[in-house]
Amino acid sequence: PSQKRCADRCFAIGDPVLHTPRGVVLTERFCLYRCTPGSTQTPSEKATLQQSSTANYLGGFLVDTLCVEATDEQTQLTISSDGNGRDVENKAVGAEEPKATAQTEAAAEGAA
Fold first, then answer.
1. What CA–CA distance (Å, rounded) separates 75 from 86?
2. What phi, psi does 5 have (nearest 5°)?
3. Coil, strand, or helix at residue 108?
4. What's the confidence (pLDDT) of residue 49?
5. Beta-bridge mates of residue 9
6. What is the pLDDT of residues 8-53, one digit of tens each?
7. What is the Cα–Cα distance from 98 to 50, expressed in whole angstroms?
8. Helix (H) or strand (E) holding 26
């Protein structure tokens, strides 16, 4: 099966966090320092939601979490004096995904 994957390396020329002579960095390093999870829910929590009775009513739930660009404040914290970046364990940002509640379950049953 063919799955979409990010390239192993990416260009980060003039990046304030990661300094490299050629501007090429490993994608995982770039994402660690420059991105943050778009949700606070774990994959197991999302899998449970996908099995809920309201999943179809709410449009379903993906187990994967999208990455979003870190805020300027988070990026400033990852800058290190040696140009290798500093892991500050960026916390998830962005909108929370909808959660199944008694109210949405009742609405879903009424729509069925």
1. 10
2. -135, 150
3. helix
4. 84
5. 26
6. 888 888 888 988 888 888 888 888 888 888 778 877 888 888 888 8
7. 11
8. strand 24-26
User: Tokens in use for 46?
Assistant: 């999302």
CA 81/CA 15 separation, integer angstroms: 13
* Model-wide pTM > 0.70: no
- Round to whole Å and give the CA distance between 27 and 6: 8
Q: How far is CA 28 from CA 4, 7, 11, 50, 111, in A?
A: 15, 10, 12, 28, 43
Could you tell me which of 101, 5, 94 has the C-alpha nearest to residue 41? 94
pLDDT in tens, 49-72: 888 888 878 777 777 777 888 888
The pLDDT score that the predictor gives to residue 65 is: 77
Surface-to-core class of residue 10, CB atoms within 10 Å of its CB (0-12 exposed, 13-18 middle, 19+ buried)? middle
Note whether 108 and 56 are within 8 A (CB): yes
